[in-house]
UniProtKB/TrEMBL annotation:
InterPro entries: Bact_transf. The chain crosses the membrane at residues 27-50. This is Sugar transferase. Belongs to the bacterial sugar transferase family. PANTHER family: COLANIC BIOSYNTHESIS UDP-GLUCOSE LIPID CARRIER TRANSFERASE, UNDECAPRENYL-PHOSPHATE N-ACETYLGALACTOSAMINYL 1-PHOSPHATE TRANSFERASE-RELATED. The keyword Methyltransferase does not apply. Pfam families: Bac_transf. The lineage of its organism: Bacteria, Pseudomonadati, Pseudomonadota, Alphaproteobacteria, Hyphomicrobiales. It comes from Mesorhizobium ciceri. Keywords: Exopolysaccharide synthesis, Membrane, Transferase, Transmembrane, Transmembrane helix. Residues 22-214 form the Bacterial sugar transferase domain. GO terms for molecular function: phosphotransferase activity, for other substituted phosphate groups.
Length: 224
């Protein structure tokens, strides 16, 4: 599915909601975090360039509020020779990842460029995870209500599914498992949280997200 398909067959969304106070918080936090983390982001960019050359950023079209597509930015985790139309998920043993990419995936530091998406208004600090166009068809049966809210850098599902790559059973098709198990689980959590969210509760998830990224948090041990 491409951007034109999404535009023509966009899931029906009742409306979008964010608020002036929350938008002001997004701008302040994104600007402050961007300045504080600029040296780290520069270091990551230089390391990626030395390891594999340009580009150091990865841009992909994602679904925003109201199912409006936007370009989301991340630090590149995959080799520059990786198939751009490959698997739409990142696995633990993904051969497309570089050495630095594996570190970025484990720490979630690859997502720091999304501070720019927050600053420009396509994303929020706290919101549902922006979904790729490959899974746009999952927003049905009530799950399209998730698209009422601006997608976020942090939030309940981002924290709870931080080690998502560890959840995939080796014997199952990962795309099918995501569509039938992980996506519905995320949508259920989002629809339970966002209709009742407050700025105070968002701040709690910001702190939990910061702790998950910069604190000590190990992935669950593999069974068997």
């Amino acid at each position: 599915m491409n951007a034109l398909d999404v535009t023509m067959h966009r899931p029906a969304v009742a409306g979008t909601s964010h608020g002036i106070a929350r938008r002001a918080m997004d701008i302040i936090l994104a600007a402050a975090a961007g300045m504080a983390l600029a040296p780290l982001m520069l270091l990551i960019a230089v390391a990626l360039f030395v390891e594999g050359g340009w580009p150091v950023l990865f841009a992909q079209t994602r679904l925003g509020a109201g199912a409006k597509p936007f370009r989301m930015y991340k630090f590149r985790k995959f080799k520059t020779t990786a198939d751009p139309f490959g698997l739409a998920l990142t696995m633990n043993d993904d051969s497309r990842m570089t050495r630095i990419g594996r570190f970025l995936a484990a720490t979630k530091l690859d997502e720091l460029p999304q501070l720019w998406n927050v600053f420009t208004g396509d994303m929020a600090i706290v919101g549902p995870r922006p979904e790729s166009l490959a899974f746009a068809d999952c927003f049905r049966g009530g799950n399209e209500a998730v698209l009422q809210w601006k997608p976020g850098l942090l939030g309940p599902t981002q924290v709870l599914f931080r080690h998502e790559a560890c959840f995939y059973p080796p014997s199952l098709d990962p795309l099918l498992f995501y569509r039938e198990v992980l996506f519905p689980a995320k949508a259920t959590i989002d629809l339970a949280y966002y209709p009742r969210r407050t700025i105070a509760s968002d701040l709690v998830w910001i702190m939990r997200g910061f702790r998950a990224v910069f604190g000590v948090s190990l992935p669950p041990a593999a069974s068997g």
